[in-house]
Design a protein that fits this description.
The structure is a single chain. This protein is α/β, with parallel strands linked by helices and 318 residues long. The protein is built from 11 helices and 7 strands. Helix 10 packs antiparallel against helix 11. The mean pLDDT is 89.
Length: 318
């Protein structure tokens, strides 16, 4: 199998040479994508003496997702069967790469990603802000992507089969920090099997490029849009089933109950008139029914998580 490593590079002058040196010999191609770096990264890439290296340059910064997609395209053009993405800041060790690609080589998964949350000892080295933020993002990503067994959604150490990558609607994939979650949404729509691979957390002197403020302002809208897209494609256009009915009943019922109840409560509070039992019943019953329907939909979504890979260990369609 032709394994290629794609490394989006943005201001990684201090780390990139060491990262490339640590990539094992099982990797045939290394694609370094300089995403408009403002330090000496371009010169550092040029100085790397490794025959496997292919360097690609973006004249302006387009985002980690755009750099990864550029690298995927370059890797597949050179015949890669598996494309591994890792960062250029030293947080990911090349020695972990065989563990990451093993589920793909064995035919157990179409996409594999690292999971830093499995090792409590290693987690003590993770900054607390990142740990808490990743925990919250993990739950939201489960809901949005439909991969309920996954953790550590922002982990950028991933591997994907080229045969699956070619089937993705890459124009729908986000180009910046929502890239990993966006990939999971598109993979779920496609029906690809995704698995977590336990890998230790590694933090040294590098800083996180993921802004908490940016995450709070931008991610919710992207998550809602991604959830709606996955629901429409997966459960309306491709497979209209019980889950679809639960959502189509649950959302309007909860919305009606909350809006009607809120209006009647406001009327009662401003006029000092107590609401009748019938009014309370009309507001409460839709909420109770709607919440029950949505809980059933969540359980069904967990059961419908893709379980059969789209291709075997050789990359051929199953």
């Amino acid at each position: 199998m032709h394994i290629a490593v794609v490394i989006p590079c943005f201001n990684v002058e201090r780390h990139i040479a060491e990262v490339v040196a640590g990539i094992p010999s099982m990797v045939r191609t290394i694609v370094l994508v300089d995403d408009g770096s403002r330090d000496g990264s371009r010169g550092a890439l040029d100085r790397i003496d490794d025959p496997r290296v292919v360097s690609v340059f973006h004249e302006r910064n387009r985002g980690v997702g755009a750099a990864a997609l550029t690298g995927y395209e370059a890797a597949m053009a050179r015949g890669a069967d598996i494309c591994v993405k890792m960062d250029g800041d030293g947080q990911m060790a090349g020695s972990d790469l065989p563990l990451l690609v093993a589920p793909l080589l064995d035919g157990r998964a179409d996409y594999a990603k690292g999971n830093r949350f499995w090792d409590f000892g290693a987690l003590r080295t993770m900054p607390r802000v990142r740990l808490i933020g990743n925990g919250i993002l993990s739950f939201l990503t489960k809901l949005v992507s439909g991969y309920w067994s996954l953790l550590d959604p922002t982990n950028g150490f991933t591997a994907i089969r080229s045969a699956v990558l070619r089937q993705l609607e890459v124009q729908r994939v986000q180009r910046r920090y929502f890239f990993e979650t966006s990939m999971l949404i598109e993979l779920n729509i496609l029906g690809a099997v995704v698995c977590d691979v336990p890998l230790p957390a590694r933090y040294a002197d590098e800083g996180s490029s993921l802004s908490i403020v940016r995450t709070l302002l931008q991610f919710p809208a992207l998550q809602v849009r991604g959830l709606l897209r996955r629901f429409i494609w997966r459960y309306v256009l491709r497979d209209f089933n019980v889950l679809t009915l639960c959502v189509l009943v649950g959302v309007p019922a909860v919305t009606f109950g909350v809006v009607f109840g809120g209006i009647r409560w406001w009327h009662s509070s401003t006029t000092a008139t107590a609401a009748t039992a019938g009014t309370v019943f009309v507001a409460a019953l839709p909420i109770i029914i709607g919440v029950q329907c949505l809980l059933v939909a969540l359980v069904l979504d967990m059961l419908y998580e893709p379980k059969h890979p789209l291709s075997d260990g050789r990359g051929e369609p199953v």
